[in-house]
Specification:
Layout (H helix, E strand, L loop, with lengths): L11 E5 L3 H7 L4 H22 L3 E8 L7 H24 L2 E6 L7 H14 L5 E9 L1 H18 L9 H5 L12 E4 L18 E4 L9 H13 L9
The chain binds farnesyl diphosphate.
The site of farnesyl diphosphate has 18 residues, from helix 1, helix 2, strand 2 and helix 3.
């Protein structure tokens, strides 16, 4: 197996982590145990990305739709997020990875917001990579918020209609300043984007595996990277 050339290493990988519940059910465990195991996978994948030279990793950790889950599962997930953030912090600091978050963060319970704020502040100067957590995130809501901003500025006379371009519009999204994802991975064999980075995913390569997120390991990561490196990205053109 030859090593992928640097150009074939995605700059940005985004992951829809799916299958925690199924993993727990298969073992007769409560769903939260699947999420706990999933949080450990997060740590391993951050390390795998770092070693492979992937500079941006974005994880779909909680969607706007996930608020509809039973209140006990939501509360357990929020608690897990808070404790995981504390645990991940040392790893982020050691490898100079900056933490970023996108989504309707104001909807998150105060302890999660506090843990997020403090981890983001602590890692703000890190420059080796960026870990973005999508929390209470929904792509349509993000796009609508950007449209509102553009409309507000246009009505105030500070933005000319002809200056609304793909680039200027992208700068109003929460992912402003980040490259679009090159590769989107989804686990548990689901073949949907589920309201994740709809604008940003326009030219992303999609890679789906039947592996449930808690079981996602080095071999899956290696295969995703190898498949990505073998694909020809045409961006709508002819190669
Ligand atoms: C999808 O599995 C997973 C989630 C909705 C939550 C993801 C959260 C984590 C991995 C835990 C912590 C994350 C971080 C960033 C520390 P599912 O419950 O939809 O699985 P199912 O479809 O099999 O029921």
């Amino acid at each position: 197996m030859t090593q992928a050339s640097p150009a074939k290493v995605p700059a940005h990988i985004a992951i829809i982590m799916d299958g925690n519940g199924r993993w727990a059910r298969e073992r007769g465990l409560p769903r939260i145990e699947g999420h706990r195991a999933g949080a450990e996978t997060v740590q391993r994948v951050i390390e795998a990305c770092r070693q492979a030279g992937v500079r941006y990793l974005t994880l779909y950790a909680f969607s706007t739709e996930n608020w509809r889950r039973p209140i006990t599962e939501v509360a357990q997930l929020m608690k897990l997020l808070t404790t995981s953030l504390g645990k991940h912090l040392a790893q982020l600091q050691e490898h100079r990875i900056r933490l970023h978050a996108i989504g309707e963060l104001e909807r998150l319970p105060m302890p999660v917001r506090r843990a997020l704020q403090s981890a983001m502040r602590a890692t703000a100067q890190n420059d080796a990579g960026v870990l973005t957590l999508a929390l209470s995130y929904g792509s349509r809501a993000e796009i609508v918020a950007a449209v509102r901003q553009a409309a507000t500025r246009a009505m105030a006379g500070t933005l000319r209609i002809e200056d609304i371009t793909e680039e200027s519009f992208a700068s109003l999204l929460q992912t402003a300043g980040m490259p679009d994802p090159d590769l989107i991975i989804r686990t548990a064999n689901e073949m949907r984007l589920s309201n994740f980075l709809l604008w940003q995913a326009s030219y992303a390569e999609l890679w789906v595996t039947p592996t449930l997120w808690p079981d996602f390991g080095e071999e899956d990561f290696r295969r995703a990277m190898a498949d990505y490196a073998a694909r020809t990205r045409r961006f709508g053109g002819v190669v």
